[in-house]
Structures
1.
Amino acid sequence: MCPKPGITLNITATASLALPSAVSVAPRVQSHRSQRSASFGRRCPQYGQGIVSPALGPGRVAGASVYSTLISIIEGHKRRGIRQVNLQLAAIQPFGRLDHNGLKGALLLFLGFSAQALSAGLGPYAHLVVNDSPGTPRDGVRVTYLGTNGYQFEFRGHALLVDPYFSRVNLLSVALNSRIQPDIARIAEGMRHLAPKADAILVTHGHFDHLLDVPIVMSKTQARLVASASAITLVRQLPDAGAPSGDAVSAGDVRLIGPWKIRVLPATHDRLFGKVPFDQHEARGPGPPQRPADWICGEPLAFLIEIGGQRIYIDSGGTTAQWPPHEQVDLAILGVALPDSRVRLLGALERLEPRYILPSHQDNFFRPLDAGFQFGLLTDFSRVRRDCERENRGHLILLDYFRPWTLPRK
Ligand SMILES: [Zn+2]
Ligand SMILES: [Zn+2]
C-alpha cells in the first residue's frame, strides 16, 4: 500500500522506532515522478528528511509546531490505501474518511510515535530500580525482567519463565495488522540472559506480545507450556510446532512442576479504546496465526507461584471485574499498561498486601530491547507511584531489562 501521488506526507518518525525505512522519513509532497520512478510492485518509495510547513487541505489537520504521523486505512468503496496526514498534537479536527478500524490503528500508531518524543526512561526513577550486587544473598528467588510482561524466576538451579517476548514487533506492523513472525536474532540475543533450561513457561494470554516467541523459547529451553486452551491451540497451529508439550489450564488449577507450585487464577484483560484488543476466545481459523489479530486474547490468566517459601503473584493487567485473591504475597507483579489496570491497582494491593510491588508491562514494547527501557505513552507511572505510596504497604520497585534481582527473604 503506497501513498498516492500528490498526497502530502508529514512524517517525523525516525529509524530508532524500529520502523521500516520506507516510513523513516520527513515530509515532502509525493510527486508523480517519484511515484513512477520509485514504486516497484507494493514497495513504497523512499523520501528524504526535511521540515515542513503545515499543509492544509480537506480532511487534514494543520499543525503548528509538533507533528506526528497518522496513517489512516481507507477501505471503503473498494479503495484500499494509506493516507498520511498532518496531526497537531493539541488540536485534533475531524478525521475525514477514517473508518472505525482505521481510526483505532491510526491512533495506536500516533500514540506510538508520540511516545518516541514524550516518554522517559527509568532515569528519573533510578532510586526505585533494584538489582543484585556482588554481596547480595542468593538464597531467595532471583527475578530477571525480560521486557514487556516477561520474567525469568530462578531458584536453586531451576528456572521458570512467564510471557517471554523478545521479538518486539514494531508498531506499524501491529497498526496495519501485517504478517508478523518471531525475530530469531532478537530471541537468540534475549535468551543469552536466560538459564539454558526451564521447567515451564507460563503464559497469561494469547496476544503476540505474550505468546509469539513462546514456541521457539520452548524448543530451546525444553520447557513445558502452561497456558489457557486457546493459547495452546494457537501454538499447535504453527507449522513448525512439532508436538509441543502444552498443558491447558484454567482458573483454579494447581500445577507442581519441579520445585514450583503454580496456582492458576482468573483474570481479565485491560480494554483499549473501550474494548479488549483481539478479544476472540476461539482461534480465527484452522491455519497458523500470522497477523497480530490472529494472536487472540483467549482466556486471560494470572498466577500465584510458590517457591522456596516465597510467594509471587503475577498478572498482565486487568479490570475491576476480577480481583486478585486475598492472599499475602512477597512480590506482586501487576500489569499497568492501560488505565483499566491502574484503576484496579489500589484494590489489588489491598488484597495481596505485597512486601514488594513491581509494576509491569509499562515499557514501550514496540522498541527493540537493546534500545533500552522507555515508558509507553499510555502508561502513567507517576500515578502508579502515588497510589503505591498512598497504600504504603510494600516497597515499590522497578527492574531494568536483564538485570537480575533476588527477592529478599522476610
Ligand atoms: Zn494483551
Ligand atoms: Zn500485553
2.
Amino acid sequence: MFKSLLNRLHHYFKLHPILFCIVVLSFGITLLIFVSSIYENHVRATVSYKKNDLVENDVYPFAKMRNLVMVAGHSVYTSSDCGKVDKEDSWFLESYQKNPGQAATFLSHIQEGVKAAAKDDESLLLFSGGETRKDAGPRSEAQSYWAVAESKGWFGKDDVRSRALTEEHARDSFENLLFSVCRFRELTGSYPQNITVVSYDFKEERFAHLHRSAMGFPESRFFYLGTPASLSSKEGALKGEAMVRSQFQEDPYGCVGSLWRKKLKRDPFHRTIPYPNGCPEIGGLFRYCGSAPFPGSLPWDYTRLA
Ligand SMILES: *[C@@H]1O[C@H](CO)[C@@H](O)[C@H](O)[C@H]1NC(C)=O
C-alpha cells in the first residue's frame, strides 16, 4: 500500500512538477504552523502556572492575619437610607423575624464583631452570609453587614475597616463557619489560629459544639460572643433553635433532608459556590456527608495542642 502511494506521488510529480511542489510545500507549512501553535500554548500554560505559583506563595493580601472573627449574617439590608439601620423595615425579615428590636440585634452583632477585631490587630473580620432572600434582590447578607458597619463609621474603630471583608455564599450557620474558614485561607494563605464567632447567645451550643466539632476544630482555640435575642422574639427563637439543633445533631454537615432543602431555598439566585477553591487542604470536608465526624485529616489536627 505504501509502495502504491509512492508510485502515485511519483506519477503526479512527473505529470505536474510545479503544482506538486506547491501542494507539498503548503502541506509542510500547515504542519509547521500547527506544531508551533501547540508549542506556544504549552509555553504559555507553563508561564501562567509559574505566575500563579508566585501569587500562591508570596502575595496573599492578608498574610499577616492569624485569627478569624466571623459575624454570622441573619438578614439583608434593603433600605436605601443608611440612617435607619436599627429600624425593622430597613431589613428583609422573615415572618419569624418580624419583632420589635430585631434590627437592633443585627446591629449589635456587627458592633461586637468590630469590637473583637479591634482588640486583636492580627485578626481578620469576616461578615458571612449569601444572597439568601429572593424578594430582597441579589444582595448578600455579608454586603449588608459591611455596609451597615461602614455607615456607622466602624463604631469609632476605623482601623478595623481595612481588615473587614465578606464571605458571600453561606446559606446556614454551618456554612457560615466552614466557608469563612475557607475564605480566611484564601485571603491569608493559612488557616486561623483562633476563631471567634459572633451571633445570638442561644446559638452558642450549635456553633461552639455542633459546628465546631463537625469541623474538628480544637475547642481551646474557639471563642463565642453571643448577644441576646430581642425580648419579644425570645420564646419563639428558643423553640426554633431546639429544632434546628436536633436537625444538625442528626445531620452535622447539613447535607440531607430538611437542612439540605432549606439551603436550596436560601439560594434563590443559583449562585455557584466557589469553595473549596481557595482552601484545597479541606476539600474533603466540603465533599463529606455523613452523621459521623469527618474521618480525614485536617490542617488544624497537628496544632491541636499548640
Ligand atoms: C489564641 O487565643 C489564646 C487564648 O486567648 C491566646 O493565648 C493566643 O495568643 C491566641 N493566638 C493568637 C495567634 O492570637
